[in-house]
Amino acid sequence: MLKRDMNIADYDADLFAAIQEETVRQEEHIELIASENYTSLV
To answer: What's the pTM value of the predicted model, to 2 decimals?
Structure first.
């Protein structure tokens, strides 16, 4: 069980690594969704 004084890296190294990789991915890349780039005609 994860206690208040523990951090994720100490509890689950694989989970911590995955979170770190996702953080880097989000900081280094931009994702555009075409449907959000158009305004509604209504």
So the answer is: 0.59
